[in-house]
Every structure is written in structure tokens, then in C-alpha cells.
Write a structure and sequence with these properties.
This protein is α/β, with parallel strands linked by helices. It has helices at about 5-20, 25-30, 35-45, 50-75, 80-90, 95, 100-120, 130-155, 165-170, 180-200, 205, 265-270, 290-295, 310-315, 325-330, 340-350, 395-420, 465-470, 470-480, 495-500; strands spanning about 210, 215-225, 250-260, 300-305, 320, 355-360, 425-430, 435, 440, 455-465, 490, 505. The chain contains 20 helices and twelve strands. α1 (about 5-20) packs parallel to α4.
Amino acid sequence: MINKIAFSSIATVYIFALNLFSNQNLDQIVMSIWPTLLLFILFLIIGLFHRLFLKLFVSFNILIASIAIFFKWQYGITITGDIILSGLVNDTDLTAEMISMKLLLWVLSTAILPIIAIFFTKIQHLSFKKQFLHTSILIAVSLVTVVSIFFLQGYEFRAKGQIRDPKFSQALSNFSPLDVEYSFNKALRSYKKMKKLYSNIEIMSKKYHYRSKENDLLVVFVLGESTRGDHFMLNGYNRNTTPLLSKTEGLSSFRNVRSCATLTIQSLPCIFSPLDRAHSKSYVTHSPFSEVFHSLGFNTEIYSLQTLDEFYQYLGYDHLKSKYAILNEQHSGAKDISLLPYAKQIIKNYKNGKKLLILHTLGSHQTYHDRITPEQEIFKPSCRHADVAKCTQEELLNAYDNTIIGIDSFLATLINELSDKKAILFYISDHGESLGENGNYFHGKPIDIAPQEQFDVPFIIWFSKKYLDTEEGRKRFSHLKKYNLDTALSSANIFYSVLGCSAIESTDGGIDQSLNICSAPEETAKQNPVLKRP
């Protein structure tokens, strides 16, 4: 039999010890001391109530800590507010695909078994007066220690007592479960803010005057997922990952393109609206380029293998078919080829008029082998584990590069279908991906510390022959071909370039020509300098 204070102490020490798996240097361990004391204080406070509440609260925290520590330890992924927000607005299937046997065994041994032991532990009942006295003393000592650490660390406080010092977040990130609970609170606030912002955006077609120079044009915008531009042979990669696109005429592939963020929910507003990296945390401030297309009479259809329905409402559409409807109809799994029957039918039926087709793919999202067909598994042996840490570096690269083969086939199929139409196709990924560099995997690192590869994305533009036969298409393609493909671009170029390359103009500043890569060379004089890949 054990009293509540001893029980809380043992639980705190256990969680601190668990964190040593991810805190592997002295600085991280020292920084985790005050969050550990805060958790101890929470346990003590809950301990003033019924012992069942204490057992439930401790069990919940052990479970959260176990999962969070695994991802930090194995993949270098900290569960931030943005990652949680992404989970709130997107479907959970992609996250579920990352569940591995190693994760399940870890959670079983470090969380489930201890939780079972907790519920078999008998907690001694003390009088409330005695419990309150002992608890108050320990809380006071712990609080004094925490406050002392704050002042020794020199944390800065806002007027309302809120800590704004980045050292606070850094220290908190070294201790789970408090980092996850803090991030969850941030995510909820961001989610409420985002929903409000969607209804208070600035409408671009009302702020500026736009006109379309082409009455007949099919615009296809393909949005990729977790795909790195430096793994395209088109961009200088040393493996033939783009055998079909490399032979395609009328195609331009830019080699130095940077996303504004490392998560889909942050990067999409930067891609679709005039929002740069510096304001990516704002999520949405202006209407997207699809709103401008719609104002000019373009019929818009969206087909997506993801479930960002609120964002698609923000984009605006005449027809939407999202993930589960597609999977139920196509029975081909969560692969980009599931989108092709719809795209082919739309392209086949297109005769004339203005049309915008948006295809949101799964691209190179983990698990990589689930993204491709057996025929697209060119590089072998490839990683088939959800737990990529079990794979060799060769297997991991092979699996990832096979997803590029799949993307190459997908885009080449679309281009072939569009070949006899007056059309233009755009392709860009939302963000990049880490493949084990410096112990980092996947994506979602906080923007200020994320590695380069999580920002590195491909950007492709293709003009059909019929579009090139028009004066407007020919002029814009000519401007584009004069552009140095090594020039540094970013998500900030996409809004203006999609409009500009699609023969849409504005007489009063609705298109920033310095960011429109289909404008005359002299109008892009303010562009970023040429940057060669290392």
C-alpha cells in the first residue's frame, strides 16, 4: 500500500526516466527539470481528490508521454501545435499508416503494462487535513524551484504574465506529456482562429480588376504531398525517377523552389493565396487564385485524396469529390491513380470554355510503398515497414524514389490526355520530406528549425500545343522559357504565376509581376537570385 504523494512521486520519476530516451544530452535533461516539477504539481493537486481520478490522470499522462517520446526518439518528430492542428482538419488515415509493430510494442511495455500496474496498486487513504498539509508544502517547494529556474533562465514575460521567450517552448519540448498538452491547447486556439479567418478573408476579385485573355482554356492544378524536388531527375537527381516527364515537350521544371511551411495545413494557404512564408502562421488572409478564376467564369472541379473539406470550401468549387467517395468508387487504395478516371473523363468531355480542375494527391506521403502500384516499384529492395527506422537507408530511398516514379506516371498520363486540348498544367508539392538526414524523418518540424529538405518542393508547368498555338499562350511560354530554371522561387510565386501563365491579367496590381514567372523578363527584375543546388 502506498500513499498518494508517494504514488505521484513515483509516477513523475517514471515519466522523467521515459523522457531520457529522447533527451540524450545533459542540456536537454536539465531543461526538462522544471516541466517535470510542473507535472508533479499537477499530480499532487489531482491527488487531493478521489484516488481513482489520480490513477486516471496519471495513466493518461503516461500514455501520451509514451507515444510522444517514441516519435521524438525514433524519428526526431516533436508533436507541435501545428501537427495537432493538421490532425484536427485532416483525416487520420495518413497518421494511422505510421503505426508500426515497434510503436505498439513500445506503448505496450512503457504505457499499457504500467497502467495495468497502476490500477492494481492500492493507495492508502489519508485524512484530508494531513493530505492537504503535505501536498501544500510540496507544491510550495516545487513552485519556488520552478520560478527560480524561470528567473535563472531569464525568461521574458508579457504584461498578462504569459511567457514569450522561445527558451520556454524549447524546454517544454524536452518533456512529454506536457509538450503535447501545451501544443493541443495551442492547436485548439489556432483551429478556432482559422475557422474565423476563413469567413473574414479579403476577396481578391473585389479588391482588384482581373480579365481573362483566353475564353477557352482548361487549367489543371495538381497538388502534391511530401514530395521533394531534388529527387526528380528533371532537376538533376542522379536516378531516373522521371523517365516520362523528361521526354515531354512544353514542360518546365524549376529546381530551387521552397515551400513556406512543413505541414499541409500551413503550406496550402501560401500556395493558393498571396501569402508568403513570413505570414504562413496567419493561415488565410486573402481569397485563393481559384476565387479569381471563378469570378472570370471558370467552372471549378476538385478531386482529392485528402479530407480538407473546410479548405476546399475556401477554394470554392462547382463540384467536389473527396477521399472516401473516391476510394469507395475506385477500389484501388489510397493511390494517386484513383484520381485518373475522373480526370480522364473531365478532360475527354472538355470541348471549350473556361475550366479549372484541381487534383489533390497523396504523392510521397508515408507509408511510401502504399502510394504506388506494383509496376511502379522500379527501385529495389524498398522499405515496406511503417517503421522506417527498421529499413536500411538504401531501402528507404528506393521506396521514396518509387513514389516519384508514380508521380511521373500520373503527370505524364494527365499530359497525354490533355495533348489535344487547349490546356495548361501546374504541379507543386505542399512541402518536402526528411529521409533520415541527421536523424530526421517525414515532415512537420517547426519552421524555424526544420531542415532544408522539408521545404524543398518540385514545381512544374506544362503548356499544350493548342495553347502554344495561341498568341497569349505563345507569349507566356516564351517569357517562361527565358526564365532561369535555377532561380530561387517559393510558394509566394504560385498565386501570381498560375494566374499569369493562364492568360489572366490585372490592370490595377492584382498580379505582382515580379512574382509572375510568365511575365516579361524585365518585369521580373526584382526576382530572387539564381541559386545552384549544393
